[in-house]
């Protein structure tokens, strides 16, 4: 078994790098559960294949898949994508995979969070979640990477870092009673510093409107580089997202990062608003945790993109707003190639490209 350290990453000289640092692997998990993905997950599987192909042009991809779906996944994915049989409860690799930390001596280690399906028995989205909870440890073993058990409930989509001492998260998610109800805000902040080697935690108030994860930060903002962020935006005052984006803008405008920089904020207009159609809702099995009714607002966002080795994988969600989103990102990332992937089928499951991918830093 790869070593699991009982010390803390920060104390051992490790920190979480920015997403724009070099990657050696991107992990994804094959979708199949019928109470989250419509029509037996076939449309979502097609979309995951396109995301994997777009990433594979820049970074090697490994797809985990259940035994039942192995043959299907293997035959639908191109040969350059590694397919590994692994049990999961669903397919949100950002949240169930390890968060990697690195040191200055070319070493990396994984951080294993506790996972409770975005809220456990309080307001989680499914039960059980035990297979998902084991995924981070299994990936560290496959890479023969040492790791840490953080000992707190957290999903990778609820944190962003600039790799230079600053962590972005929000109160709506990390202080939600369904996560670490026995910990104070100060204790959670200390756990983030201890496990991710950051110096300053920026607590935005909330996440994107109608996000069933209790407002993951990766749906509201993304980090461009230290001192620069992408922010989901709308000019429609009647949209509940308007006030949320205004509050985030005000917060970021008045904040400084760990190195004392003020922020340059790139506003990216949200798609839609987007809603489940009758046909889409009818294709999803009913279950207790996830609301999937026609007319329900989806948490669509262009901020939910992946940065990997000079390429940005951008979810395409709305012909009206896809072009403007691409333009803002290209201006913010002039040296990056932006590859768009049709992503409504991922959004129907409750997240997007960033949520279904987890990166392993190159060392
Ligand atoms: O946004 C994410 N990081 C995950 C979304 C999970 C949705 C489950 N239906």
Task: Provide key terms for this protein.
binds 6-aminohexanamide, four-stranded mixed beta sheet, alpha/beta, 363 residues, globular, 11 helices
Give an overview in words:
This protein is α/β, with parallel strands linked by helices. The chain is 27% helix and 23% strand. It is built from eleven helices and 17 strands. The strands form five sheets. It has a four-stranded mixed beta sheet with strand order 1-7-6-5, sandwiched between helices. Helix 10 (319-332) links the parallel strand 15 and strand 16. It is globular. The two termini are 21 Å apart. The mean pLDDT is 97. Bound molecules: 6-aminohexanamide (KQY).
Briefly, what is this?
The protein has 363 residues and is an alpha/beta fold. Helices cover 27% and strands 23% of the residues.
- Determine the N-to-C terminus distance: 21 Å
- Order of secondary-structure elements: EEHEHEHEEHHEEEHHEEEHEHEEHEHE
Strand portion? 15-25%
Class by SSE composition:
alpha/beta
Low-confidence stretches: none
Described by strand count, sense and barrel closure, the largest sheet is: 4 strands, mixed
Report Rg. Answer: 19 Å
**Separate helix tally:** 11
Tell me, rounded to a whole number, the average pLDDT: 97
Helix content: 25-40%
Write the SSE topology.
Layout: E1 4-5, E2 23-29, H1 42-56, E3 61-65, H2 70-76, E4 81-85, H3 93-96, E5 99-102, E6 108-114, H4 120-123, H5 130-142, E7 147-153, E8 160-161, E9 166-170, H6 171-174, H7 185-196, E10 200-204, E11 221-225, E12 228-233, H8 240-254, E13 264-269, H9 278-282, E14 306-308, E15 311-316, H10 319-332, E16 337-342, H11 344-348, E17 358-361
Bound molecules: 6-aminohexanamide.
């Amino acid at each position: 078994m790869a070593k699991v350290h009982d010390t803390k990453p920060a104390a051992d000289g490790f920190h979480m790098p920015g997403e724009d640092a070099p990657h050696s692997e991107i992990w994804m998990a094959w979708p199949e559960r019928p109470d989250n993905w419509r029509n037996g997950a076939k449309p979502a599987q097609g979309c995951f294949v396109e995301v994997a192909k777009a990433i594979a042009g820049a970074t090697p991809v490994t797809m985990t898949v259940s035994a039942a779906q192995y043959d299907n996944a293997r035959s639908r994915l191109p040969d350059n994508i590694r397919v590994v049989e692994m049990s999961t409860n669903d397919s949100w690799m950002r949240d169930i995979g390890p968060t990697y930390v690195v040191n200055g001596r070319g070493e990396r280690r994984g951080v294993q969070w506790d996972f409770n399906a975005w809220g456990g028995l309080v307001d989680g989205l499914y039960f059980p979640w035990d297979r998902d909870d084991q995924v981070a440890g299994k990936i560290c073993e496959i890479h023969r990477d040492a790791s840490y058990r953080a000992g707190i409930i957290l999903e990778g989509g609820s944190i962003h870092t600039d790799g230079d001492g600053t962590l972005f998260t929000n109160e709506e998610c990390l202080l939600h009673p369904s996560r670490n109800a026995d910990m104070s805000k100060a204790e959670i902040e200390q756990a983030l510093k201890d496990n991710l080697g950051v110096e300053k935690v920026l607590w935005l108030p909330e996440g994107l409107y109608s996000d069933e994860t209790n407002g993951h930060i990766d749906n509201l903002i993304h980090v461009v580089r230290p001192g620069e962020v992408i922010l989901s935006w709308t000019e429609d005052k009647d949209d509940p997202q308007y006030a949320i984006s205004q509050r985030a803008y005000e917060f970021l405008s008045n904040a400084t990062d760990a190195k004392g920089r003020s922020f340059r904020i790139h506003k990216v207009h949200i798609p839609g608003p987007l809603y489940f159609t009758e046909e889409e809702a009818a294709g999803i099995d009913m279950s207790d945790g996830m609301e999937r009714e026609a007319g329900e607002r989806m948490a669509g966002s262009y901020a939910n993109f992946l940065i990997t080795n000079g390429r940005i994988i951008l979810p395409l969600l709305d012909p009206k707003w896809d072009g403007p989103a691409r333009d803002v990102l290209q201006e913010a990332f002039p040296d990056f190639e932006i590859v768009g992937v049709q992503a409504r089928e991922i959004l129907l499951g409750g997240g997007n490209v960033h949520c279904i991918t987890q990166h392993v830093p190159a060392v």
